[in-house]
Amino acid sequence: MYIGLPNPNQLIPLKKLHISKAGGTDLGFDVLFNPEKYVQTRQVQYSDKAGLSMDMPITQFSHGSAEILKFSLFFDSMTAGSEVGGAFGDRLKMEVNSKPPSILKFVDVSTYTEKVYKLMEIDPKLHVPPLLRLDWGSLHFTGHLVQCEQNFVRFNEKGIPVRAWLECTFRQFISNVGTKSLESPDTTKYRTVRQGDTLSGFAGREYGEAGRWREIAKANHMTNPRLLRSGDTIALPALK
To answer: Which residues have a Cβ under 8 Å from the Cβ of 182 and sit 6 or more positions away?
Structure first.
């Protein structure tokens, strides 16, 4: 007897990856089979700017990027409704699966794949594809399905697909609410020098104090603040 532990002879249903439309009353659906793995990717972009009297360019942070989530989903209507996926209603649509595959009246596997594939269609009320919520274990992801490739790999004798793979790519949704302005005084910025520009002029426009031109000169390693050349890039340091 096991006290406080599950019965070892009883199968515990697996927690399925659940996909739903975010921010609404849509209950969503569970995938037929969980993915074997998923891959999350993020990138940040940098650019090089020519500095004043410098041999090496100044590396400037440009922007970050939304997270990308990728995984493969397996669909097989020959086993739909078993302990690994599907619903009781699916089992009622199928013949006894002890018969050879060629004579079974399998459910068209696109019945399941279309639930995912159609998530890229435009919502007539929002005029954009729906924002999605993906939940599975510790994974909680909000974003859009941006690419989905259907691969049908097995068919019955009538040409109805009964097995498929979906290669799915989701892009994270990032709201602009609460984001920090990149033009704030506490962020280092870069400007292109134009004819007639001066360090005191940059200081006056950026900091509201023309007398802070010395901080700009120091940040750019300038010994002569009058040597500004049109087309050069100048760094405007963050205020301290």
So the answer is: 189
Name the CATH topology of 189-236: Membrane-bound Lytic Murein Transglycosylase D; Chain A (3.10.350)
- DSSP state for residue 59 in the 8-state scheme: E
User: What residue spans define the domains of the chain?
Assistant: 18-47+65-172, 189-236
CA separation, residue 133 to residues 67, 122, 198, 212, 222 (Å): 14, 16, 51, 49, 52
Are 157 and 103 contacting, i.e. CB atoms less than 8 angstroms apart? yes
pTM of this prediction exceeds 0.85: no
Contacts (Cβ under 8 Å, ≥6 apart) of 193: 228, 229, 230, 231, 232, 233, 234
Mean pLDDT check: name the lowest of 47-56, 66-75, 194-203, 207-216: 47-56
Q: Sign (positive/negative) of CA torsion 160, 162, 163, 166? A: positive
User: What is the pLDDT at residue 30?
Assistant: 93
